[in-house]
From TrEMBL, chain A:
<dbReference type="InterPro" id="IPR020556">
    <property type="entry name" value="Amidase_CS"/>
</dbReference>
<keyword id="KW-0648">Protein biosynthesis</keyword>
<dbReference type="InterPro" id="IPR000120">
    <property type="entry name" value="Amidase"/>
</dbReference>
<dbReference type="Pfam" id="PF01425">
    <property type="entry name" value="Amidase"/>
</dbReference>
<dbReference type="GO" id="GO:0006412">
    <property type="term" value="P:translation"/>
</dbReference>
<keyword id="KW-0436">Ligase</keyword>
<dbReference type="InterPro" id="IPR004412">
    <property type="entry name" value="GatA"/>
</dbReference>
<keyword id="KW-0067">ATP-binding</keyword>
<feature type="active site" description="Acyl-ester intermediate">
    <location>
        <position position="173"/>
    </location>
</feature>
Automatic annotation (TrEMBL), chain B:
<dbReference type="InterPro" id="IPR017958">
    <property type="entry name" value="Gln-tRNA_amidoTrfase_suB_CS"/>
</dbReference>
<comment type="subunit">
    <text>Heterotrimer of A, B and C subunits.</text>
</comment>
<keyword id="KW-0547">Nucleotide-binding</keyword>
<dbReference type="GO" id="GO:0016740">
    <property type="term" value="F:transferase activity"/>
</dbReference>
<dbReference type="InterPro" id="IPR006075">
    <property type="entry name" value="Asn/Gln-tRNA_Trfase_suB/E_cat"/>
</dbReference>
<comment type="function">
    <text>Allows the formation of correctly charged Asn-tRNA(Asn) or Gln-tRNA(Gln) through the transamidation of misacylated Asp-tRNA(Asn) or Glu-tRNA(Gln) in organisms which lack either or both of asparaginyl-tRNA or glutaminyl-tRNA synthetases. The reaction takes place in the presence of glutamine and ATP through an activated phospho-Asp-tRNA(Asn) or phospho-Glu-tRNA(Gln).</text>
</comment>
<dbReference type="GO" id="GO:0050566">
    <property type="term" value="F:asparaginyl-tRNA synthase (glutamine-hydrolyzing) activity"/>
</dbReference>
<dbReference type="InterPro" id="IPR014746">
    <property type="entry name" value="Gln_synth/guanido_kin_cat_dom"/>
</dbReference>
<keyword id="KW-0436">Ligase</keyword>
Length: 460, 470
């Protein structure tokens, strides 16, 4: 049963919202202690909400577009009364006093929020191992990292603990764990989803997006969270497509859709990627060719520039964003209690933003970013999509010690979309030795719907 | 040896005149209903501590600033234009200025790049003008931080080091506050916070922080000038440092030296995309800005041929200046200036009112001055009427009628009254005859009293003298 069908079933009361919730609660009860996808679960409020929805439907009252769907939320998105720890000791006691804009929208549409998902501390990581509350296991490849930083959100979907989760993506933090856990993950165009209420990692790169195990779930979630927010200055004030309308068509039409597509495969992307991953991506390329897409080999010459540019910006903005954790309002001073990656980023950010280096690092990074953005937009100016691997290598085993640069290398293919502000999604392309391999689709700004369509077609 | 010592003594006692340079950074709150980046109210003084707050102005984890308050931007632009600043027509954006202090809930203050620059006020050059957000208020005595003030828009005005004495700085600040009052865009001296830069020839620059009034600026400069002079005279180096002004003691104390000066690590705020100041918006502001007082003074002197003192007094308040310009359409400008500068201002000062609060209209003033011009009342009566005018619904004519003050007493009546006064005050008359001039004043006063001030004082003196002398 896909998400569209489930929503209909709940509306018809063939499936009660309460039963949908209880089956998830049972799975969480059985498996969360070993998977550690959720940091907190709020059974009472979720049960009350589910009952309220069932009652409304029984009375024939209107319900929202998400009525009865169960959501897990990354622990860096504010949900009123919940502990929003960002998986850090710094905020272990921070109980939020307000709902992020995306949470308001989910609540308005009768989505049920079940709990907060594990993540890398302050989203600064690609493995979810840096959580103060312990690592998350990969349900699709037990013993391996689920990726990160939204590892809890991806694992919750892979372990069928809820319908949809929200993650945040700064350099791949939604797409990377989606790839490792074999689920759908999507980072919208920068500004399409309000960041109001999202804890900062790198403000000019952060974007909230959904994870789910089917495309209709992604579309339903996007229709709710995408949209202009007048309280957030980087929010785009424009019309957005209705994602559910676009993919809610019969299957032949979806296949036809690929016929008009011009899809780029970037040589440099496969150059940096392990062969067994490339092989699986090649199968997908063959599949879309069969559907009638025009596939063109192309070149992106700035791939070596992407990681340094990304990390310089990330360090400086993260340093700035963490100044509020000075120990006065939230209990701990961040530098006193955080993990080594968070500390590294703060110290690097503090170092390179010094007045004496003004213009040397951060400004250069911003210039490099413009260059990368222009180049990507040029590539996409006469193409619909870029298709390639999401992550260049398979997930390591939990606890395996990686050097920082090895860890950063996971992000090389995903940071581009954040630097360029373009939409990008990841879906499962296949498996290697039982470990999921993700395929990444990228489009020009506001081309979000093309990616969702292509995902629907490829998944067909 | 003795000669050298004497020479040194001379230097120390006699003093050498040392040139002083002073520049100011003045912060004043902009007049808006809501804060710069959220919808919270700005009446922080009336509200109980920590009630005008929301997650945004508390900078709770995850919050983002709302779009910049447009009224704040408009107010800052108005002030910049009134100070003859150039306006960057392109874009303005906010920087994050990082520092660690309990009143700063985000760990950085948002401060705009200059929205106006290269202005001037009475010959003092304005380097640049910024918008900023106010931090909260750390109150160690109460053990709290009150965030009601957090996020209230400020305008920061930075001058060049063009002032050469504490007096000059004080004059500049007075004039600046007057401009701000004229602009109706800022909250005035009560919300002022200033940093003062001062350097003396042969010394380094000291920055004094924590100044909250014009008087404080003056006193701190006086203190600092003497302190630095004494150091220079003794041959001690004046360090480049930041000092704090202690208002209670009117002294400055060292805060930190250049070596451990803060590095604010400025970065453009990623949450606030650059704002384009629209040409249309700028034109709107330009069309509606009030003429700055110093420009008005110049115009009054030229247009109405009045002296500088009068022009300054008349422009001390925008509403007063406006009233004057209405009055002079039907009254001689010099005559009007004299009455409005001397008598009206005296009455306002006595009642501790400004002109606006007095509710006196230009029409009232015209009526009063016409009564005087037409010799329907005497100067003395005019003065009495004007004393009754503040917050009075009745017109001057009605006041005069009510008090029975209309009309100038004819010479015959004055003569009769004078005779009566002389016969009833023999002691005073004889005193005067003995040469006691003040006794005559007493007698004049008696005549004025009996005629209810309707007698002409000059005429009365003449008549009394004639009567007594003959």
């Amino acid at each position: 049963m896909n998400t569209f069908e489930k929503l209909q079933a709940i509306k018809n009361q063939d499936l009660k919202a309460t039963d949908n919730l209880e089956s998830f609660l049972k799975k969480i009860e059985n498996n969360n202690s070993s998977i550690n996808a959720f940091l907190t679960i709020n059974k009472d409020s979720a049960r009350n909400k589910a009952k309220e929805i069932d009652d409304k439907i029984a009375k024939g009252a209107n319900v929202g577009s998400l009525a009865g769907l169960v959501f897990g939320i990354k622990a860096n998105i504010n949900v009123e009364d919940e502990i929003i720890s960002a998986a850090s000791k710094t905020l272990e006691d921070y109980q939020s006093s307000y709902d992020a804009t995306v949470i308001k929208r989910i609540k308005e549409q009768d989505g049920i929020i079940i709990g907060m998902c594990n993540m890398d501390e302050f989203a600064a990581g690609s493995s979810t191992e840096s959580s103060y509350f312990g690592a998350t296991d990969n349900p699709a490849a037990p013993g391996h990292i689920p990726g990160g930083s939204s590892g809890g959100s991806a694992a919750a979907i892979a372990a069928e603990m809820c319908d949809i989760t929200l993650g945040s993506d700064t350099g791949g933090s939604i797409r990377n764990p989606a790839s490792h856990c074999g689920v759908f993950g999507f980072k919208p165009t920068y500004g399409a989803v309000s960041r109001q209420g999202l804890l900062d990692l790198s403000m000019s790169l952060d974007q909230i997006g959904p994870l789910a195990d089917d495309v209709s779930g992604m579309a339903v979630a996007l229709d709710t969270i995408v949209g202009y927010d007048k309280t957030e200055c980087t929010s785009l004030n424009q019309e957005f497509p209705v994602f559910t309308e676009v993919i809610n068509q019969n299957s032949e039409k979806l296949q036809d859709y690929m016929k008009d597509m011009k899809v780029l495969c970037i040589n440099q992307f496969s150059d940096v990627t392990d062969d067994h991953i490339n092989n699986i991506i090649d199968d997908s390329v063959a599949k879309i060719k069969n559907m009638g897409a025009e596939v063109v080999d192309s070149s992106f010459n700035y791939i070596d520039l992407c990681l340094p540019t990304y990390y310089l910006i990330n360090y400086v903005e993260f340093f700035s964003a963490t100044r509020k954790y000075d120990g006065r309002k939230y209990g701990y001073k961040i530098e006193d209690v955080c993990g080594e990656e968070v500390l590294r980023r703060i110290e690097m950010g503090s170092y390179i933003s010094q007045q004496e280096f003004s213009g040397k690092y951060y400004k250069k990074a911003l210039q490099a970013r413009s260059l990368i953005r222009n180049e990507i937009n040029k590539l996409l100016s006469d193409a619909d999509l870029i298709l390639g691997p999401t992550v260049p290598k398979l997930p390591h085993k939990i606890g395996e010690k990686l050097e920082p640069m090895e860890m950063y290398a996971y992000d090389v293919l995903t940071v581009i979309a954040n630097l360029a502000g373009i939409p990008a999604g990841s879906m499962k392309a296949g498996e290697y030795n039982g470990i999921p391999v993700g395929l990444q689709l990228q489009a020009k700004p506001n081309g979000d719907v093309k990616i969702i369509k292509a995902m629907a077609a490829l998944n067909h | 040896m003795i000669i050298i010592k004497l020479w040194l003594l001379f230097l120390i006692i006699g003093g050498i005149t040392i040139d002083m340079k002073c520049g100011l950074e003045i912060h004043v709150q902009l007049k808006t209903d809501s804060k710069l980046f959220c919808d919270c109210s700005t009446n922080y003084k009336e509200a109980p501590a920590n009630t005008n707050i929301c997650p945004v102005c508390l900078n709770q984890p995850g919050t983002k600033p709302f779009p910049t308050n447009e009224k704040a931007l408009k107010n800052a632009l108005t002030i910049a234009l009134m100070l003859n600043c150039k306006i960057d027509k392109d874009i303005t954006y906010f920087m994050r200025k990082h520092y660690d202090y309990p009143d700063l809930p985000s760990g950085y203050q948002r401060t705009s790049v200059p929205i106006g620059y290269e202005g001037d006020l009475n010959g003092i050059k304005i380097r640049e003008i910024h918008m900023e957000e106010d931090p909260g208020q750390f109150k160690p005595d109460f053990g709290i931080v009150d965030f009601n003030r957090s996020g209230i828009p400020l305008v920061e005005i930075v001058t060049e080091p063009d002032m050469h004495s504490p007096e000059e700085a004080r004059e500049f600040l007075k004039e600046l506050i007057r401009v701000l009052n004229y602009s109706e865009c800022a909250r005035g001296e009560g919300t002022m916070r200033a940093d003062v830069n001062i350097s003396l020839e042969g010394g380094n620059r000291a920055e004094i922080k924590n100044i909250n009034s014009i008087k404080g600026a003056y006193k701190s400069l006086k203190f600092e000038m003497i302190r630095q002079k004494n150091l220079i005279k003794r041959g001690v180096e004046v360090k480049q440092e930041t000092r704090a002004f202690l208002e209670s003691q009117m002294i400055t104390v060292a805060m930190r030296t250049k070596e451990d000066a803060d590095d604010y690590r400025f970065i453009p705020d990623p949450d606030l995309p650059p704002i384009k100041v629209q040409k249309k918006q700028l034109e709107e502001v330009s069309e509606t800005i009030p003429e700055a007082p110093h420009n008005k003074v110049k115009r009054f002197i030229e247009e109405y041929d009045i002296d500088e003192e009068s022009a300054k007094t008349l422009t001390s308040e925008l509403k007063l200046a406006n009233a004057y310009e209405i009055v002079v359409k039907s009254i001689d400008p010099k005559f009007a200036a004299m009455w409005m500068r001397d008598e009206l201002k005296r009455v306002l000062t006595y009642n501790k009112l400004d002109f606006k609060e007095s509710e006196i209209s230009a029409e009232n003033i015209i009526e009063l001055l016409n009564l005087l011009n037409d010799k329907k009342i005497t100067t003395k009566v005019g003065q009495r009427i004007i004393e009754k005018m503040p917050k009075n619904k009745n017109s001057p004519k009605e006041i005069a009628e009510e008090l029975g003050l209309i009309g100038v007493v004819e010479k015959d009546e004055v003569l009769d009254t004078a005779k009566k006064t002389i016969s009833e005050n023999e002691a005073a008359v004889s005193d005067y005859k003995k040469g006691k001039e003040t006794s005559l004043n007493f007698l004049v006063g008696q005549v004025m009293k009996l005629t209810r001030g309707k007698a002409d004082p000059g005429e009365t003196v003449k008549i009394l003298k004639e009567l007594i002398d003959n």
